[in-house]
Amino acid sequence: MGSASLVSSSQGQTEKTARRRSFGPFLTVVASVVVLAIVWHLSATLWPSRAFPPPLDVLRAMARETARGEIPYHLAITLGRVAVSFLLAMVIGSAIGIFLGSHPRADRFLDPWVILSLNIPALVIIVLAYIWFGLNEVAAIGAVAFNKIPNVIVTMREGARALDLNYTDMAKVYKFGPLARLRHVLLPQLQPYLAAASRSGISLIWKIVLVVELLGRSNGVGFQINLYFQLFDVASILAYTLAFVCVMLVIEFLLVQPLEHASTRWRRRAA
Amino acid sequence: MNTLQPVGADAQLEIEVRHKSFEASRGGSIEVLRDLNFAVERNEFVCLVGPSGCGKTTTLRLLLGLDHSFEGRIKLPGEREPRIGMVFQEPILLPWRTVEENVRLGLPRSLSGKNLDHLFDALGLSGMRAFYPGELSLGLARRAALARALAIEPDLLVLDEPFVSLDEATAQQLRCLLLEIWSERPTTVLMVTHNLLEAIMLADRIIVLSPRPSHVVGSFLVRIPRQSRNAQVCSDILRSFHEKFPARAAI
Fold this sequence. Notes:
By secondary structure, chain A is mainly alpha-helical. Chain A is built from eleven helices and no strands.
């Protein structure tokens, strides 16, 4: 009896430690966010100013704008722009990057172009796009995609250079079709590079989208932030920012990380 | 030098390479093959031996169509597109696909729904079908590579030192497995090896290549049936091989 209860209690102990271990990182994140909010609140109370509202004011502004349907509307518009320009940049950038990575002569010729476009400031591209193509959606999305494409090219070019030719030979001998080659040979090898490019891509693109909206669109989070800048309403500016960051975090945790986990599961269980 | 070249009337595989060289990226070139001619009959098991760096793997790459920059002619078995099962020096399994997926990916469309139970059973891989290559030992990975090559029911099986860097017991076990499966469904085999005893155990004929630039020095028929090739017989055959090719004693 004594030994049986001892066993069950030790099992309970292990379960508890396991649970603690899996909740540990989550609790740390929550604690960190709470501490940040407290510090923010304390400093806003100690140095009260219209330009630095306490977190509760920001939350109130967020609730008000959400109830009016403003935040969801502008968020949806901005997210749509982020998604389209992200897809465009990834597809075009990957295609060019893989081509350059596997054709050294073309790469040597086009490398200066890539370096040049890497170093053109985002603002210049946006302004020129609006001047050349007018204040429209195509110019806006094109400008954002163009800003990101050189980064994708450089990353994917590295990926293509690192391709293992043994797999290419194997696929050739066993007569893999073009789709099978892409799906089973090429993409899995490029996966880490694709992940890196999309990671940095999402965070860069949503920042540029806001600038594009601020300069030449009449909706979207960037437009709203410009509006509240003119009204000097810092609480609303922060409300939009927070809402947007929250959405991006949700995308990160519900979309990006599970996808990454699924595509690298063969790595985890190496012998 | 082509006096010993046995070109049969219904040769399945004919290789005539007049010249093959590699260009170094910093200039200069190195001639690997010169007037390399040989043929392999239908369902014949041929081993290719020769000194290290003499262009054995290069020859295989030419006949697999992985390298087109050579002067000469290669005739492959089959009418249109021959099915070639290849086992490379390394297993070259896709690490992100399971053993079964790796084998199935090699299958031509006409065999795509094929039942592989028997093959996996014969190779002792039944329990490993859902494993990723990274979870296998080298011996098991080589079996999986062999399974992929055999699953396509090849017109020609090409093996590039398939049992190298395995311990002798495992290598011997795999050789027996290969023979067992091959005698169930014989096919034309061209195998590169450094191991003369392995060649003697497996082959109908051993083709000996010269050092670079490589050509055929001669070939050695192993007439004794495979089931009678025990250790004693093999070492006797090895002795007569060395008598015929004294310069090859080092191989």
